[in-house]
Amino acid sequence: MINYNHVVQFQHIFWDEQLKSAKTIVDATAGNGHDLLYLAQHCLPGSTLWGIDKQTKAIEASTKRLHTECARPDITYHLVHGTHEDILATGNPATAQNDGPTTNTKYNTAITNIDLLIFNLGYFPGSDHTMMTKPDSTIQAIKGGLDLLNPKGLITIVTYPGTPEGEREDEAVCEFISTLPQKSYDVATWKLVNQANKPPILYIIKGR
């Protein structure tokens, strides 16, 4: 059943469609690993997943979740400790902090040909709330992701305008993606309009 009251879960309907053909999948804000686990459980055999986060505790939490809850020997996943803007801007994750099933692996290939890229902005639950994603770095990460996206690729972005910092980030994201050329991308948004306290907003970018 689709949960229309939960933006993070609602976006699964877009992921599920893309995962029917996606082979390279990137979670640019791995956090506690819930989104990454969902992607790992629903992707095609032979898929490669990347999880990126700048906080060590997030990488550790995501790694533990995948190791304990995802029995998929037919996929490859990498957890990368770094900023999403740096990694997506270059496509090169350099050295992963944690990697399944090995650790500290030096990658010989960059992240390319992304089929599905997701952002769940804000802060890592249970962490220091000052360690939030920021408008400038988020926009740089989205730009980098667009450069690495396959022609029919999909990007989903969840923003949290319920705080002043989150509202500024939401405005920056909306302003930037609204300028993307129509001939190259379909850009949409989904949000609950009858709720108080500025609920999260979902943005969708689909390559044409």
What's this entry about, in short?
The chain has 208 residues and is of the alpha/beta class. The chain has 7 helices and 8 strands; from the N terminus they run H-H-E-H-E-H-E-H-E-E-H-E-H-E-E.
By CATH reckoning, the class would read: Alpha Beta
Q: How do the helices and strands follow one another from N- to C-terminus?
A: HHEHEHEHEEHEHEE
Strand proportion, as a percent range, falls in 15-25%
Could you report the average pLDDT, rounded to the nearest whole number? 88
Q: Residue share in helices?
A: 25-40%
What separation lies between the terminal Cα atoms? 29 Å
- Under CATH, the topology can be stated as Rossmann fold
The CATH fourth-level homologous superfamily: Vaccinia Virus protein VP39
Which strand order do you get reading across the main beta sheet?
Answer: 4-3-2-1-5-6-8-7
Largest sheet: 8 strands, mixed
Indicate the structural class.
alpha/beta
- The overall strand count is 8
Count of discrete structural domains: 1
Overall geometric form: globular
Which stretches of 5+ consecutive residues score pLDDT under 50? 95-106
**Rg, nearest Å:** 16 Å
What features would you describe in this structure?
The chain is of the alpha/beta class. It has one domain (7-207): 3-Layer(aba) Sandwich (Rossmann fold). The chain has seven helices and eight strands; from the N terminus they run ααβαβαβαββαβαββ. It has an eight-stranded mixed sheet with strand order 4-3-2-1-5-6-8-7, with helices on both faces. Helix 4 links the parallel strand 2 (48-53) and strand 3. Helix 3 runs parallel beside helix 4 and helix 6 (135-148) packs parallel to helix 7. The longest helix is centred in the N-terminal third of the chain and has 14 residues, at 56-69. The chain is globular. The model is unreliable at 95-106 (pLDDT under 50).
